[in-house]
Write a structure and sequence with these properties.
With 371 residues, this protein is an alpha/beta fold. The chain has 15 helices and 15 strands. The strands form 4 sheets. It has a 7-stranded mixed sheet, with helices on both faces. The chain has a 3-stranded antiparallel sheet with strand order 11-10-12.
Length: 371
């Protein structure tokens, strides 16, 4: 049966995609295209243009309609773009889109892991893994096919429920860490994803460093620089650890992989231990500062990247400590008046990041709630 296509404009590219009028939902179309990911594809083009050299070899591993591949070829710095998909119907659309945009793309019809193993000698400068669900099953073989020094891995996870603790058993099955639903669930999920990718790369004596990572709507997205050698892996291990969280008062403690973890919170409640996951930086501010993007999400990212983790959901913090929550702007102003740095966070509309301690934040909450 012929796929019903419609032409749309995304960024500077024209794309033939399955008609939403006909198929109603992206998941019901014969070839997947999600219009809600347009923001991410636009930001991805900007990141690759900042990080990669002109002519870099870029692989769109799970290409579907080729939306990413086309935009990398059309809007990137003369990248050499490859598009792979297991469906011949998908690659047929990729070829139509390449012709529509007058760009050259190398295409392949292959199962993703088989392709990575067959083409590992290509030494791709960038591999973009954007699956429907979890990317983790492709990560180890991607570590063999990407350039070992300063290569770039981009990965999307569309299963935040597992990563963030809503489905802890699914999280452990897929990502091999213990999760729990907390007041900072999306930051936990993003750190869990990075930690899982780090472990897969470490098996191949490679380390990773986040350039940019974020949570948005229904997905997590990471851009990771690849670095070779066990010395770098060992340094990376210092950025892996556990977060111990108290559901009674919302205190949190961070410990390295081999550090002893307390059993009880200062309030007397049992601590919940989450990990092992990434406890290092979520991005590189020197790269992020060079990217021009006016979206609210990216503006918030630029501000919060310089502040310590983890963020606080002020509504939750106020609730468990039995105080009313004042306006977030008032709390931020009070903390700044005390000399602390503070910003909003993209992880939660009721959240902040700050270098103030838990006790200082709680004191500000209590003081403002009385006024």
């Amino acid at each position: 049966m012929e796929i019903q296509l419609e032409e749309i404009k995304e960024g500077e590219s024209r794309l033939l995609v399955p008609s939403l009028e006909v198929y109603k939902e992206p998941s019901k179309a014969p070839v997947f295209y999600n219009p809600k990911m347009a923001f991410d594809r636009s930001l991805s083009v900007k990141v690759l243009n900042e990080v990669l050299d002109s002519g870099a070899k870029v692989l769109d591993l799970l290409s579907a309609t080729g939306a990413r591949a086309i935009r990398y070829a059309k809007e990137g710095k003369q990248f050499s773009v490859w598009a792979n998909d297991v469906k011949s119907t998908a690659i047929a659309i990729v070829k139509k889109n390449a012709e529509l945009n007058a760009v050259s793309i190398r295409t392949s019809i292959d199962e993703a892991n088989h392709f990575l193993l067959e083409k590992r000698a290509e030494n791709f400068d960038c591999i973009d893994i954007d699956p429907f669900g979890s990317p983790i099953n492709f990560v180890f073989n991607a570590s063999k096919a990407v350039r070992a020094k300063n290569g770039l891995i981009c990965a999307t996870a569309t299963d935040p429920g597992a990563l963030s603790g809503s489905f802890p058993r699914a999280c452990f099955r897929k990502y091999s860490y213990i999760s729990h639903k907390t007041s900072m669930k999306h930051e936990i999920g993003l750190r869990g994803l990075i930690g899982s990718i780090f472990r897969e790369f470490a098996k191949n004596s490679l380390s990773i460093e986040p350039i940019l990572s974020y949570a948005n709507i229904h997905y997590y997205r990471v851009f990771l620089r690849v670095m070779p050698g066990n010395k770098r892996v060992n340094r990376g291990l210092k950025k892996m650890g556990f977060i111990s969280w108290c559901p009674k008062c919302d205190r949190r403690h961070v410990s390295g992989l081999w550090e002893e973890r307390a059993k009880n919170c200062d309030c007397g409640a049992d601590l919940i231990h989450i990990g092992p996951l990434w406890i290092g930086e979520l991005g590189d501010s020197t790269v992020i500062d060079t990217i021009k993007d006016k979206s609210m999400l990216f503006s918030t990212l630029k501000e919060e990247i310089r502040l310590p983790f983890l963020h606080y959901n002020l509504h939750y913090l106020a609730k468990v400590n039995k105080v009313s929550c004042p306006k977030i702007a008032d709390i931020m102003a009070a903390l700044r008046k005390e000399g602390y740095r503070v910003s909003r966070t993209h992880f939660n509309s009721n959240g902040i990041k700050t270098n103030a301690s838990y006790d200082v934040i709680l004191k500000a909450l209590q003081k403002l709630s009385k006024n």
